[in-house]
Each structure stands twice: as C-alpha cells, then as structure tokens.
Amino acid sequence: MKTKIYLGFILGVIAFLIYESLNKSTNDPKSKRLDCLKQVTSFEKLYEKELKKDAINALLDGNYTKKSKIEYSKLMKSKLVNIISVDDFDKLVEDILKSKIKSDKNPSENSLLIDYYIYENDKADSNKKNKDALLYAGYIVFEFFYSDKKVYKVQIDYLNDDASDLEKRVQCAIDSFLSL
C-alpha cells in the first residue's frame, strides 16, 4: 500500500514537471521561441493572454491600423536617415502584413493597432552600458494592441548599418506575434 502511494506521488510530481515545462509562460522576455529570435538579441512579452487569439485573427482578417516612427541617432551622424524614411518603413511593414491576411472580413468594432518603430543605435552616446551595445545598428519594436490593451511586444536588434537585415527582422516580429 505504501509503495503504491509513493509511486503515485512520484508519478504525480513527474507529470506536473512535464506539464509545466510544456506550458512555459511566454512572459519571460528572454525566451526565444523562434529561430529568427535566436539570431540576434531580442525580447518579447505577452501581456494579455486571453486577447491573443482575437488579436491574431484581427491581423489575419486585415482588421488593423498602424502607427509608426523612426528615431534616428542624435549624437552621431545618422546612417539610417539616408536609407529609409517612415513612408518606406510603412510600405515594408504593410507588404509583409498583406502577405499574412487570410480573408477580407468586414472590420469589427475592435481592430488591432500595430504600433512600431525603428531606433537607430547612437554609438556616440557615452551612456552605453557596455561595448556590446556598439555591435548592433539599432532595433525595432512592435507592440500589438487589441481593445485598447497591449497584447504583445517584441524588440529585435538589426545588425547592419545599411539596414539590409531590416526586412528580415520585421518579418520575424510579425511571425513571432502570429505564432503566439
């Protein structure tokens, strides 16, 4: 009888550990769920788990609005300012988003707001934490809001000063949201 109780307890603990490892929270900003997130420094966070399905469906239905900006370096001469404008960035994002749309449903009262920006790494900033901060060209941030609540945020470094890897990073940000 004692053996069965011990065996049951051990199996219960093992089952719990397996369940917990399979259902790890994506709230860990250092988690790397996708290969593209592992290629560079990236952070992600899921804020409203219960809204993620509706938010993803809104994007897939083409029911979204966008808000964007670019923050060019201020202390050093910007390399990015001659490479990409906000309009160019918006077109890049829109082309990737359009490739993800599955249907054109009528817009619902709740649409997805995609708030995103490029930050150009200002390498002349003396307040950098360490020398590794000088290795990347900048980063992109994408925040997804549904029903006026932040659902998900991802930040991904881009490495090339000519922004040639920017499209790949934007694709990664959108794919990471869709894979929640």
Tell me what the structure shows:
The protein has five helices and five strands, in the order H-H-E-H-E-H-E-E-E-H. By secondary structure, it is an alpha+beta fold. The protein has a five-stranded mixed β-sheet with strand order 1-5-4-3-2. A hairpin with a 2-residue loop joins strand 4 and strand 5 (149-158). The relative contact order is 0.20.
SSE layout and pairing:
Blueprint (H helix, E strand, L loop, with lengths): L1 H21 L12 H4 L3 E5 L5 H9 L3 E8 L14 H15 L11 E9 L17 E9 L2 E10 L7 H13 L2
Parallel strand pairs: 2-3
Antiparallel strand pairs: 1-5, 3-4, 4-5
Helix pairs in contact: 4-5
In short:
This protein is α+β, with helices and mostly antiparallel strands and 180 residues long.
